[in-house]
Specification:
258 residues; alpha+beta; five-stranded antiparallel β-sheet; 27% helix; globular; binds biotin
Length: 258
């Protein structure tokens, strides 16, 4: 990985400062540790992670030389209710950047998976430090499978995960993809700070593959099956059950049925 190739493409404040490491435990954990000492928009980037963190306490597979693992440190003047908007922002930025560089029709699966034909290309993990309902620090971790081959995935991910290379048959410059993501994030971060959250929510809705589909949501041990109706402005998924009642889901896994 050549961070200088990323730096020369950066246009705004997100990614103006990039801290690059060949190997870390987790870019999110490291970013949280240093967050107070760095400026808004600083990025922690690594070629590999030994303890990559996924959602819901899972492990994020992070081998060297092929993929993207980065964390953006933000210090927005937002309240804890707005934390979901930051994740939406990263998902929209990731989808735009991947569409532009690879030509793939990347979509967002609730809450924030980047998918191509229902297979997962990337994920986002946002962690926040909150005091008196204000976000002091948000660390937005983005993991993307770029040049990973099918045989590098473990058995249990074979049918649900993919990479840009598997989908296109081509190898991509990780530096170019990263620069696109950071520039896109800068653009949406500026919109958010200008209180233009509707534009962001609208874009998320345009890019999602979840709304209007029949889904089963697994929340802990409970399963809810129904129509994925909408998301509210805190990022919760509203499912319309066959009884006509609705359920709001703030975390969990969904399976798209048809
Ligand atoms: C998910 O489970 O879908 C979220 C995966 C997030 C993975 C990224 S890789 C960079 C950053 N550092 C981590 O430890 N996790 C996130």
């Amino acid at each position: 990985m050549h961070p200088a190739d990323i730096r020369e493409r950066i246009k705004g404040s997100v990614g103006k400062e990039i801290l690059y490491f060949e190997k870390v435990g987790s870019t999110n954990a490291l970013a949280m540790d240093i967050a107070e000492k760095v400026t808004d928009g600083t990025v922690v980037l690594a070629d590999s992670q030994e303890k990559g963190k996924g959602r819901l306490g899972r492990i994020w597979l992070s081998p060297p030389g092929v993929n993207v693992y980065l964390s953006v440190i933000l210090k927005p003047a937002l309240t804890s209710r707005d934390a979901a908007l930051l994740t939406f922002m990263a998902a929209v930025a990731g989808a735009h950047a991947l569409r532009r560089t690879s030509g793939l029709e990347v979509r967002i699966k609730w809450p924030n998976d980047l998918v191509v034909s229902e297979r997962k290309l990337g994920g986002i993990l946002t962690e926040t430090k909150i005091e008196r309902q204000r976000i002091l620090v948000a660390v937005i971790g983005i993991g993307l499978n770029v040049n990973m081959d099918i045989d590098a995935f473990p058995e249990d991910l074979l049918h649900t995960a993919t990479s840009v290379k598997i989908e296109t048959g081509r190898i991509f410059s990780r530096e170019m993809i990263i620069a696109e993501i950071l520039n896109e994030m800068d653009r949406w971060y500026t919109e958010l700070k200008g209180k233009k959250r509707e534009i962001l929510l609208h874009e998320w809705q345009r890019l999602t593959s979840t709304l209007g589909r029949h889904v089963t949501a697994l929340v802990g041990k409970e399963a809810y099956t129904g129509l994925a109706d909408s998301v509210d402005d805190e990022g919760r998924l509203i499912i319309r059950l066959p009884s006509g009642r609705t359920r709001k889901i703030s975390s969990g896994d969904i399976t798209i049925l048809r």
